[in-house]
Amino acid sequence: MKIPFTLPRQFWFAVFGIALLGAFVWVAMKSGPLASIKVTVTQVAKGEVSPALFGIGTVEARRAYLIGPTAAGRVKRVLVDVGDMVKAGQLLAEMEPVDLDARVSSASAAIARAKSAIAAAQAQVTDAKSRQALAASEARRFADLGQKGFVSSSVVEGKLQQQQSADAQLAAAESALASARQDMTRLNAEREGVQQQRMNIRLEAPADGVITARDAEPGSTVIAGQAVFKMQEPNSLWVSVRLDQERSAGLRLGLPAVINLRSNPGAALAGKVVRIEPVSDSVTEERIAQVAFDRVPPGVSSGEMAEVTLHPPTVTDALLITNASLRYRGAQAGVWLRVNGKLRFTPVKVGATGLDGKVQIVEGLKAGDEIVVYSERALKDDSRIKVVSSLGSK
Amino acid sequence: MISLAGRDILHSWGKFVLTGLGLGLLIGVTLTMAGVYRGMVDDAQVLLNNSGADLWVVQKDTQGPYAESSSIRDDVHRGLLGMPGVAQAANVTYLTMQVRKGNTDVRAMVVGFEPGQPGEPSYLVAGRRITRSHYEAVADVNTGFALGDRIRIRRHDYTVVGLTRRMVSSGGDPMVFIPLKDAQEAQFLKDNDAIVNERARTTANPALNRPGVPGLLDAINASQTSNHNVNAVLVRVKAGYAPEAVAQEIRRWKHLQAFTRAQMEEILIAKLIATAAKQIGMFLVILAIVSAAIVAFIIYTMTLGKIREIAVLKLIGTHNRTIAAMILQQALGLGLIGFVVGKIAATIWAPAFPKYVLLLPGDSARGFVIVMLVCVLASTLAIRAALRVDPATAIGG
């Protein structure tokens, strides 16, 4: 086959030259300072934003107890182990009584002795009473005889003195009896005290709960206040959550919360804020709040990490943009507004922020404004842009 | 008047174009090599630009945070905020590490930043900014992560919520941005085995585990695992203040090192990438010399190839000037085609390089002038040979 006509060499050379020139121009436009920056734009629209606060917390027990002796001593026996469920009042451990039992019997013996002392004092009172009665009757009789002149007055005075002496002896015997009774009361109280101490070395559960630590074994010596057991009430478990101060606006009591435990991140557990600590951590710049489970999940361990999301009320009818559009010029937040194909940096004031990236604009934009969302490079006022639907991965 | 050069080129235009293409590829390689060097410098500059800072405050007597390691307390920035001329001060951590990605890992620089402060990625190409204060990440597209991917850094999984572009370390490693507190933990927190071992070691120390002081051991263990260090504080200077003046105040009163933008650039470019840049520069010089030599030889042999035709021209009484102009024009034409092809080739293959290749228009212009000069020089050799030819060879030869 033969081509009906042949094109001149000039033609092919010209084609090559034009192709080369075209490619060069294309390359120059595609890269380098002449190239335009690819951006995506969107229109500001009204909508609703669900602000959310996000924090990390650990599961803790609201009521946890350290159980230990009030005086230094040696542990005698330990009856429960970690994980055991205990009832309020149940005996958990006992300290070595050392001399407490001996002191109780000593106190009992002292009380028995005091009882004898009371009996003796009572006998003395009886004796004094009978002496006093005899002295009184004799004194009356001699006073009669004295008036009639049968005995001398000195004898009468002697009998009167005997009567007074017997009165005084009775009073002394009565107060000795009272003293013996008071001694008895004191000794009873002492014995009571020693018995209380004896009871105090029994370590009992203050509430229903579960033992979380067993820190001393029989034979070990603990000081006053040192824990032998730690226990907590399992149904009082809550999450102590730390929220970045910067993102804690809107934190208040009763906010509904979603709790994701690290052991089961898929399960969203419901809860709510039950306590907000008035002092925030100044070192980590975090606020601390406690979130209670609506229903404590079975098998949750205290000390476990949890992610907590709090949901303040939804803001409706708000001007919304995505936070990817927000740019910072120095400390000033703003967006790139596209007006008639030109870019303009517009400062904005930001309101509520949702975890999905939606941001409420309080000031600076109006509905229908076209703003830049993504850009290939940092934008400047005189940047040439090319609007595309989405930026590729490269 | 007819163009002798044009006629000659058209006479064997296929050969001419192919020679030009070959030459162009060689020039393309040279331009790319220059682009690799510029890319290295640009990586360093882009790192400084992206941090958005005027001053870098680091540990005293170090040149951190990029060139040396630096560690300062994270409450230092509060003191800095109180200094005159400081508009913003933000903690930042940098840690270059292998980030797990499926079964492999990618080398990335993990940056811990505070939202809305210097150090944050200034623009995104997809997704959104970080909204949770923990366990979210923004990654450079070069890491290969996609939106929604889970990244494992130390013991925590991070969800990629945004993608950015051209956020690289001075070594060209793409960046992964995570919240500052997580980054502090990632940088300084040990693995579980190490923590358990450390606890056991502390427990075994009788000075720290004293029977009469319950709670002491717990307190020591807690203080061992917490961390309040960062690598640097990025400072933005108020309008109207000279960065160097503010830096001097910080050096003098805060006992910290402060670098201005110019000093940081000096550290990065003159010190950090100096050896690598010299290596590339050396290679670039050799490549340029080799390219020039090849261009010269091609033009010389091209001229020698048509020495008989030149002899004929001389025989029919053509001026020497006309012959010289023809050879010069051909050489320049070849250079032009070569340069254009080289520029196109370099632009096309530049994005395929794993590290950034920056083709500066200034470099291209310089390259163009050099190519043309080399062509002129090479054609003088060829012209000398052509003019010395004896017209008799046209008939005698």
What does this structure look like?
The complex is a heterodimer of chains A (394) and B (397). Chain A is 30% helix and 35% strand. Chain A has 394 residues and is an alpha+beta fold. In chain A, the strands form six sheets. Chain A has a six-stranded antiparallel barrel. In chain A, strands 2-17-22-21 form a four-stranded antiparallel β-sheet, with no helix packed on it. A four-stranded antiparallel β-sheet of chain A has the order 4-11-9-6, with no helix packed on it. In chain A, a hairpin with a 2-residue loop joins strand 13 and strand 14. Chain A is rod-shaped, with a radius of gyration of 48 Å. Chain B has 397 residues and is α+β, with helices and mostly antiparallel strands. Chain B folds into two domains: 4-44 and 274-395, no CATH class; 60-189 and 227-255, no CATH class. Chain B is 53% helix and 17% strand. Chain B has 13 helices and twelve strands. Chain B has helices at 4-11, 13-51, 76-81, 180-188, 192-204, 216-225, 243-254, 261-272, 274-305, 307-315, 320-349, 361-387, 393-396, and strands at residues 55-58, 72-73, 86-101, 104-113, 126-127, 136-140, 150-153, 156-164, 175-179, 229-230, 232-237, 257-260. In chain B, the strands form two sheets. In chain B, strands 1, 3, 4, 5, 6, 7, 8, 9, 11 and 12 form a ten-stranded mixed β-sheet that branches. A two-stranded antiparallel ribbon of chain B has the order 2-10. Chain B starts with a helix and ends with a helix. The model of chain B has no long low-confidence stretch (mean pLDDT 86). At the A-B interface, helix 1 and strand 3 of A face helix 2, strand 5, strand 8 and helix 11 of B.
